[in-house]
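Lab notebook: predicted structure, single chain.

Context: the supervisor wants predicted structures on file for every construct in the current expression panel, including those that have not yet been purified. This is the next one on the list. No modifications to the sequence; it matches the entry in the shared construct table.
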Amino acid sequence: MTTPRPTGPFSDGSRTLVMGVVNVTPDSFSDGGRWFEPEAAVEHGRALTTEGADLLDVGGESTRPGAVRPPVAEELRRVIPVVEALAASGVRVSVDTMRAEVAERALAAGAVMVNDVSGGLADPEMLPLVAAHAVPFIAMHWRGHSADMQQRAAYGEVVADVCRELAHRRDAALIAGVAPQRLVLDPGLGFAKLAAHNWALTAHLAAVAALGQPLLYAASRKAFLGVVGRPDGAAPRGAAERDVATAATSVLAALAGVWAVRVHDVRSTRDALDVVEATRSAGGGA
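Prediction complete. Output recorded below exactly as produced.
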């Protein structure tokens, strides 16, 4: 079984990494604030690590469609204690934020990576900050904040358009001084995307990879997985019922050679990716 080998930060090239999601928000679409209190979030993060997460992505701002941004002081209050506690226990932590101030404080607290869903567009200080700290940076395809992003889901040809716009973010990051080996791209499933757009990007990850950077694939529990296979007009599956579909997309992403998949249910994804590796090994694929 010959598939592209993943490359990127913290990777030895042997397998796709699993990034576990730690939402420290009261209004997350996936868990409804279940891990909002710092103690609960830290406990959850440690459990995800035990289940096989290679790194944890800690975020204090919901980016579900229609979400309202918290004040920066509130985002800091949510995120910093969790980052600090997880990092102190030896966990590799990424901070999920669009704000340079939050990123800087999280790095000081022990985070080792910044995941910015705006790709540096929301805060002009983000790219210089990441470059100065010489840490890995994830730049996602983004067209605007959650409050109105779905109104921007209009494409001539979604794969070509996303690749072109992501190339601009790649170039901006490199010009700002982010080292190529530290830059990861994310096609931004669900962000200014309809279901058909998400499936097209999933089917053409090789085109996104052709931009020359490692990829993060983040489909976990998103709305398009809630309607796949459902009859027209049927109620979508709830977020917690989308983990099998998430694991299936993670397998597809791993076969495409992505650097990491970002998921809520680490255990099922780790099992699914172990099947990919076992099959690869049995087939003698490179």
